[in-house]
Amino acid sequence: xxxxxxxxxxxxxxxxxxxxxxxxxxxxxxxxxxxxxxxxxxxxxxxxxxxxxxxxxxxxxxxxxxxxxxxxxxxxxxxxxxxxxxxxxxxxxxxxxxxxxxxxxxxxxxxxxxxxxxxxxxxxxxxxxxxxxxxxxxxxxxxxxxxxxxxxxxxxxxxxxxxxxxxxxxxxxxxxxxxxxxxxxxxxxxxxxxxxxxxxxxxxxxxxxxxxxxxxxxxxxxxxxxxxxxxxxxxxxxxxxxxxxxxxxxxxxxxxxxxxxxxxxxxxxxxxxxxxxxxxxxxxxxxxxxxxxxxxxxxxxxxxxxxxxxxxxxxxxxxxxxxxxxxxxxxxxxxxxxx
Length: 339
Hints:
The protein contains nine helices and twelve strands. Mean pLDDT is 80; it is low at 31-70, 322-326 and 331-339. It has a domain at 93-118 and 131-299: Aminohydrolase, N-terminal nucleophile (Ntn) domain (Glutamine Phosphoribosylpyrophosphate, subunit 1, domain 1), CATH 3.60.20. The chain has a five-stranded antiparallel sheet with strand order 8-1-2-9-10. The chain has a five-stranded antiparallel sheet with strand order 3-4-5-6-7. A two-stranded antiparallel sheet has the order 11-12. It has 339 residues and is of the alpha+beta class. One of its GO terms (cellular component) is cytoplasm. This is Proteasome alpha-type subunits domain-containing protein. Residues 73-95 form the Proteasome alpha-type subunits domain. One of its GO terms (biological process) is ubiquitin-dependent protein catabolic process.
């Protein structure tokens, strides 16, 4: 005797339709979109195609790929609004702007990543607190701003691709290659059904194999990637980027690059060294995380420099004011003694 076969979805759908009366064909007044009480988990694709009016507009849209009437475009995935926006991508970019700040700066033979980190809670175990800086391969590192959970998934995908490339080609990935891969993953999640875009931007840095030229790239939730000399992502990134534009110089050495990175972060970080982490990449070397005591010394040096500059400006303004008082129009210096 042949083994019994489980009924297919189409057969189950036919059995369900046979056990219920056919849909009414009497015209009904248009009262707006009607939502069915049937649970979406009980729906079959043939039911949606044959009797779409009996089910929710969202279920019809997800099953058929057609935008059902009554669903806001902001609630759909990978659908353009009438004015050409993909709102889910724009919402993902807003999530990036709400994330902590991350900065990348290239020097002559070094590239530095600096990130703002949130303060740990009193009972939190700081040993397993996720960092904003992650190593993709021995020569490639990225920092991110946005949702930590999204970053964890994207970093795992990038690491897997880097190891697969190493096993297949027997050569490490270039920084541009892994950046393209990360941007490609982000882009695919903007045009696929049933998923949402990654709510993160990344700064990818490192050195290509047998090359001493520092690399710095940025990726965005939309899938765009670009190369930079210095850049910032996350909250107040515009302010930090303007600071970098004013102070960045070509061919900076290691100390100057580290100092500029920390100084730019201090534009938005008000709590000092305890909320800053710094990673340094050099040719032929793995990632170097700057110890907290060294970050503290850099912060103290920068604050002392700022105080000295403020004192000089104050002294200069004071001398100018005194000279203006002693020198008056028509009388010259010492005119007050002749009054």
